Amino acid sequence: GPVLIANPAMFCADFDDPKTGVRAGASEESGGGMLGGLLGAIGGASGDDGPSSPSQALLAKFGLTLPPPADLGPDRRADLLPVLVVLDRHPLKGCQAVLLNRRTGYLLGDLESQAASDSAGMSSAAGPPKLGAFMIQPLWFGGTSAASGGTNEDGDERVGGGSGGLGMLHMCPAVEGAKQLTDDGLFWGGDPGQAQDAMNDPSLDRPMTGFDFKFYVQCTRWLPLQLEKEIKNGTWFVAEASKELLFKSRDRLGSKRAKPLWTELMELMGEEYSFVRDELYGDSF
Asked: How far does Cα 149 stand from its chain's mean position?
């Protein structure tokens, strides 16, 4: 699963024109797998400049009504810049991904409580899923597209499914029906109910906890070749990142604020992309 890192020049109104045709996190050879496919499909760098101001359609796709303003401060702006993991790439159906840095403000337990309330007094209604192991886990916002349910043997329509339409990104290989996204063991999908048992499967290298799972509503979709065109025009930097980095806790610790995922990824991209990070942070970095 390649990681897409937003170019702030395409989302913020106070940036210079973006550097186009970049191939962030990749060598001169595009390599194999989904990452190589995304980079290979776009060909060489384009000489066309990106738009002079952020596209409202692009902002709306990620739940933003306005470009993140400078007075928010660099860390908060970085939190609002989309970072996504690609779940699926299909030549006819396009690409699907979920945001890695956008919470809904709800916990999974809030959904279960609401489901229990909605089914109260309906004796024939099936009870809400029992997800006690995940009650305190945040519910994440995957994007503005409706999630689909179910999968087939070819792996199509992997977004959604599971219990109550929840998507599940995780590091547990014992979850049945999950799709492996990366060689280091990042997975998508499966039933959250069964995942509670899989967390303690004796075949695992270590017992897992709820913090090894992220639960999603909705997703982000692109039409065929749409994402490839956005990469070509400089909207996204494409990289590969470890599952540990993607699951690293970024909660505030007292007065200390955790480093945004966008910022940490840009630091790991190397000096070639340091100008992008530096332009966002300026003298405060």
From this structure: 18
What are 222-249's pLDDT values in tens digits?
999 999 999 999 999 999 999 999 999 9
Note the pLDDT tens digit of each residue in 44-66: 444 444 446 899 999 999 999 99
CA distances to 37, 115, 144, 190, 210 from 176, rounded to whole Å, are: 27, 24, 27, 6, 17
DSSP string, 219-261: BEEE-TTHHHHHHHTTSEEEE---HHHHT-----BTTBPPPPH
> In degrees to the nearest 10, what's the CA dihedral of 176, 89, 146, 97?
80
For residue 172 the two structure tokens come to 């547990």
Give the chain's count of helices (H) and strands (E): 9, 11
- pTM greater than the 0.85 cutoff: no
What is the rounded CA–CA span in Å between residue 35 and residue 239? 8
Interatomic CA distance for residues 84 and 38, integer angstroms:
14
Tokens of 142: 């995957």
Q: Where are the beta strands (DSSP E) in 38-134?
A: 83-90, 94-99, 103-107
Tokens of 79: 């939190």
List pLDDT tens digits, range 78-120. 999 999 999 999 999 999 999 999 999 999 999 877 665 655 5
Closest by CA position to 111, among listed 92, 91, 128, 90 = 128
